[in-house]
Each structure stands twice: as C-alpha cells, then as structure tokens.
Specification:
Blueprint: H1 25-46, H2 54-68, E1 72-74, E2 86-90, E3 96-102, E4 106-112, E5 118-120, H3 140-149, H4 151-183, H5 194-209, H6 218-235, H7 244-254, H8 258-273, H9 275-278, H10 283-323, H11 333-349, E6 354-361, H12 364-371, H13 373-390, E7 396-401, E8 404-409, H14 414-429, E9 432-433, E10 436-437, E11 440-447, H15 454-471, H16 480-484
Parallel strand pairs: 1-2
Antiparallel strand pairs: 2-3, 3-4, 4-5, 6-8, 6-11, 7-8, 9-10
C-alpha cells in the first residue's frame, strides 16, 4: 500500500467521501500527532508491538478513540474511508500509517514509528503539486519485507474465506430445503419455511462477519449449523440429516486440530441420535439410519483431514526446498532475503543488535581448476556442514552463491560478531585441501551501529569483506593464520 501526500485521489483510497469536516493541513497534522501519541502510549500500556492485522488495528483504534475523544478507525481495503476520521493502517516499514483528510478532499498520509515520531509521507511545500513520481523498482529485500508485513493480512484473508464458505453452505442448505418442504407429503404448515429462512439468515450473518471476526469463532458456526440441522430434522423431515455431512467436511477442512475435528464430528453424531430421545416410537429407524450416517461422517471428515494434511506437508516440503541450497543444504539466497527483513524489523522494534557476517572462501577457483568441480562441490558441502555446526541454534546460515556464504546472527553486538566471525574462520580452516587449511575471509556489519537498513547492512559487510581481501599478501590459498589476521579490523 503506497500513498502520496497531497493527492486528491490516492491509489487504494480514491477520493474521500465527505463527512462534513474540513480541516487545514496544519490542523490535520496536529490531529495526527495527537492520535499518534495516544497510539504509542496505548501500545506501551499493553506491552505489545504495533499490530499489522485488521483485527488488531480495530482493537487499537477503539482503545485510542476512547482515550483521545477523536474518531479513530482501522483502514479496511474493502471500504471507502470518509473525511473526518483518522485511519490506522499497516505500513511497509516497522510503523503504523495514519491517514486523514484536509482541505475538503486531499489525503494526509503520515508514518508513526514506535518512538512516537510522526512524519508526512512524501511531504512537500505544495501539497497540491503535480502527479507523484513513478515508483522505483523494488529489490527482493523490499518485496520480502512487505510480504512479511502482510502475514497477518494473509491469515485474515484465510479466515474471511472460511467464513464465506460457511455462508455458502448455509445458503445452499436453506435454498435446497425449500423444494423438499414444498414437495413433502402430507403438506407441511407454512411455518416450516421458517427453517430455510433461518439457514439463509445464518448465511447472511456469516458473510457479514467474515471481515470482522477471527477464525476461532468458526467453532461456534459449526456448532450452530449442527443445531440448526437437528432442528430441521426434528420439525421437518429426517432426510435433512444428510446435511450433517457438510458439517463434518467443513470442520475437517477449516480446523487444524484433530481433536477439534473429532469433537465436531462427535457432536454431529450425537445430533444424529437425538431423535431416539424425543421420538422413541421411531427409535429403531433412527438407529438404522445412524449406523449408516455416523460412519459416513467419520470417513468424510477423516478423508478430508488426511488430504488437507498431506497437502500442507507437501507445501511445507516444497517451501523448505525452495529455501535450501540443493548442494550444501544450508539456506539459499531466497532464505536470506526472507529472514533478514523479518529479523531486522524485529530487532529495530525491540532495540536490539543484529549482526550479518559474509564469508568468502580464499581463491576457491583454484581448487576447482586444480582438483575439478566435483571435488570443489564436496568442499562446499563440508563448509556448509562446519558453518552449521559452529553457529548458534538461532543463527541462520545461507549460501549466497558460488563460494560465498552469510550468517544472520540475531541478538549479537559487535564484539560478539567479531568472536563469531573468528570461530567461523577457524571452523573453515579445519577443512584441508591437499594438506593445507582452507582459508576464508569475513566481513561483518551490525545493526544499528553500522547500518539502519538492509541494503546498508549488506553493503557495509561487503565493503569490509573486500577490505580484508585486499590486505591479504597474495591471492594464493592462504593458511588459517593469514585468513584470521584481519579479525581485529572487523
């Protein structure tokens, strides 16, 4: 989501719908700063990070609105915002975006960081200036950072889908029951059509709540569906007991816990047997039908659960393969671009140090030229193994390409990073080629001491690596002592 301050029609927002409140830009900025201070204070009181999901932003907006007496709402992509309220929206960076209007039709877009600083995005002396400049191409790190920031949004989208599936099932059951009731012999009283109406209303409620409630409330939906089916079976016709199959399939598809699925299937099975209690005269027919229907519920739920779990395992396996270097088994460049933005955002939020260490094997091309690429590949595999064994459990090792590796070291200051880099060089030196230790050079950068952004962190580490390589006495494969010499410079 990228907006420019001062545009009359902002991409993703459109023109604000008038709500009768017209402010100057200065007044709008003052309101944004006032609300921003309350947002930071509320986050401090709760001891939490800035939320990035719509549900979290709504809860935060409600609390802030109650404290500051202003109209504060969460920005929903599905709704056109009005003039007047201040909207809270997730940001591509580790911040919250404040959106409000001024001059009766222009958007003021501000970034609020965790320290309470509020700045206008794309601020200019002339807010009505011409069109915004074309966006610069985004590099992989920016794309991965945005993807990580959108994780809560994706989870919300999945919950929305599940709510709407439930709504569709209610609609299908309600409309499907109308012809059956009409053809029933003997004819049913007109009030029987209240049951399909109940199902249709339930579907409308689920559809309306799909953007407001989280996935945990779907358990209540499954229970309500079971009870409505039981009511329909008792008052209309027992043929509708087949609808319990939809409950079993839905529970198996939506819920991840096997226990939860079993409980919902068990509750539906009890509902199948319910006519035994209120209609003893037909108890035998009920049991005959139950012996056919209950195993169907169990088999349907079990089959869907198995297929879903196998699909999820396949997706996880493919995800791991996509993030692993096929030769060495360590992370690949994609893992680096995925983890580094997340770790940097986390360490910035909690004001911790993060180290990035880049490792380059000395004159590895000569190893390939002299002994062949197969032998070189075996050496690279060995390097990946010793690096994984040397780092700590929460560190991430990745192969950037060729003979270059990198290590993301969370919660690591400069002194700890220098020590870790020395241990990594020592571990690589234990690998011998033709009786000589394999040399390696390292360069490191530490957030926030050396750099504030991902690009700066990578550039600083690369510059230090080149400086280390340049100080080496020759380009021949060096000994472990020569490789370790520049450690003090890091």
């Amino acid at each position: 989501m990228r907006h420019r301050d001062g545009d009359a029609a902002v991409d993703g927002l459109g023109e604000p719908e008038t709500a009768g409140l017209v402010l100057s830009r200065t007044e709008a900025m003052g309101r944004a700063m006032s609300v921003g201070a309350e947002v930071v204070a509320e986050a401090d009181r709760q001891g939490t990070e800035f939320p990035s999901s719509l549900l979290g932003l709504r809860a935060l907006a409600d609390r802030v609105a109650g404290r500051c007496g202003q109209r504060v709402e969460a920005y929903d992509d599905d709704r056109q915002p009005l003039e007047g309220p201040i909207y809270l929206a997730p940001s591509d960076s580790d911040a919250i975006r404040l959106i409000t209007s001024y001059d009766g039709g222009r958007w003021l877009i501000c970034e609020l960081d965790r320290n309470g600083r509020v700045r206008a995005d794309g601020d200019s002396a002339d807010p009505a200036a011409g069109s915004a400049p074309a966006a610069l191409p985004r590099d992989p790190f920016q794309e991965e950072a945005a993807r990580a920031a959108d994780q809560d949004t994706r989870e919300l989208a999945a919950a929305r889908l599940h709510w709407r599936i439930a709504a569709i099932l209610f609609f299908g059951g309600g409309f499907g029951a109308i012809p059956s009731d009409a053809l029933h012999s003997p004819h049913q009283p007109a009030t029987i059509y209240l049951l399909p109406l109940l199902a249709i209303v339930s579907g409308l409620v689920c559809w309306g709540l799909s953007t407001r409630l989280s996935a945990r409330w779907l358990h209540l939906v499954a229970v309500a569906a079971t009870l409505e089916i039981a009511l329909t079976v008792g008052l209309a016709d027992r043929v509708f007991a087949i609808y319990y199959t939809f409950v079993a399939i839905y529970a198996a598809y939506v819920f991840r816990s096997r226990t939860a699925i079993a409980l919902h299937v068990g509750f539906a099975s009890l509902a199948v047997l319910a006519p035994v209690a209120y209609d003893p005269e037909t108890a035998r027919q009920t049991l005959v039908a139950a012996f056919a229907l209950i195993p169907t519920l169990v088999l349907a739920a079990g089959t869907v659960t198995l297929l879903r779990e196998q699909l999820e395992k396949s997706e996880e396996r493919f995800r791991r393969l996509a993030e692993r270097d096929p030769l060495t088994g360590v992370g690949n460049y994609r893992m680096l671009t995925d983890r580094l933005p997340r770790e940097l955002a986390r360490h910035r939020r909690f004001k911790r140090s993060l180290a990035l260490i880049v490792i380059d094997l000395d004159d590895f091309k000569q190893v390939n030229d002299r002994f062949g690429h197969q032998h070189g590949d075996r050496i690279l595999c060995e390097v990946g193994r010793v690096l994984n064994e040397t780092v700590r459990g929460h560190d991430v090792v990745a192969r950037q390409g060729g003979d270059e590796f990198s290590v993301i070291a969370p919660e690591t200051d400069c002194a700890q990073a220098v020590d870790l880099a020395a241990r990594l060089r020592g571990a690589v030196a234990q690998i011998t080629v033709a009786g000589r230790p394999l040399g390696a050079s390292t360069g490191l950068a530490v957030f926030p001491d050396d750099a504030e952004t991902i690009e700066q962190l990578l550039a600083r580490a690369d510059v230090r690596l080149r400086e280390v390589k340049a100080r080496k006495p020759c380009r021949s494969r060096s000994s472990g002592t020569t490789s370790a010499a520049p450690a003090a410079a890091l």
